[in-house]
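Assess this:
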Amino acid sequence: MTEAVYTATAEYILEMAQRPVKHRVSVSGVLKRLGVSRSGYNAWKKKMPFCY
């Protein structure tokens, strides 16, 4: 379950980064809303063979 949450979070953050500036949201805001810790998300990102 946790792996799926991190993957979905990374995909959402990548999608938000592609939007115009006034429609973007902060990474912190996304993580908080999804209940994902920044440290946990960053640790997961470091383990992945691809980097968002």
